[in-house]
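Revision sheet: structure tokens.
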Amino acid sequence: MHSGKALEVDYSFKRYLRAKVSVDDWAMNQRVWDQMAGLLPTQASHRPLRVLEIGCGIGTMVERMVRKGLFTHVEYTGIDLLPENIAYAAQQLIEWSILAGFRLVEVSGGAFLLEDGYRELSVRFIEADLHTFLDCHEGSGDWDLLVAHAFLDLISLPTTLERILGTLRRGGVFYFTLNFDGMTILEPPVDLDLDEQIERLYHQTMDRRVIEGESSGDSQTGRRLFGLLRQAGATILAAGASDWIVFPREDGYPGDESYFLHFIIHTIQAALQKEGSLDERRLLEWARLRHAQVERSELVYIAHQMDFVGTV
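Predicted:
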């Protein structure tokens, strides 16, 4: 139980990414997933499916896609800016692939070859800045499937989306998941007025995010993707809600979801502290009470998000 003292948590981004796998699994829109899977070309032995994931994090999406039987013959490339994510993704790949019964061979260029008798999967993780990567591959038409998972709301889509889509071959498929869309709900309330103020200010920090002089992020990315994708010449074939919904069961939160919640509260607190738009003492007390709700298995967290699939 929470004692009233400040909760001491070691906030690890890698652990957060791992903790949210189960949250993402429940959230991802099954109808959009099914549409994406049905659009993929036949994976013949002579022609592997070529997949690019931007902002791949620690590699949980390729693990999910393999676990759900999406691939039989694939070349999967994941890029991420953070070297620690790339290193951890490779480590995790080795662990889960062996547990799943694959024969694993590390080949040149940091790629891994996974085989189990009827599937042949080549997976490569690359440390790369998105813009630098696009400078080399924009308009290349190299890939059949483009994946962005919980990533597009962190970048400037008006200046980048068309370049991203240009990596796909003509008729290629994009699959964009967990795009935040302007609702952060925490229940039960601490103070209704303060809760609403914190939600509003937190969303503003997303809208004001600037990286290397460029606006990077939008708290309403989900709804705006409809127009942005059309303007970029893409065709949306399915879209649907993919809300994060985290709530306690009789025996508490599943898996490591309590850590996930602590990390979300910490993220909100850190963003508002950096902005300096709320009294520090009120913010710290709000965060303390929210952490205590997690410790008592009381907090319910909902974030509204959207999934998209289509072709170019």
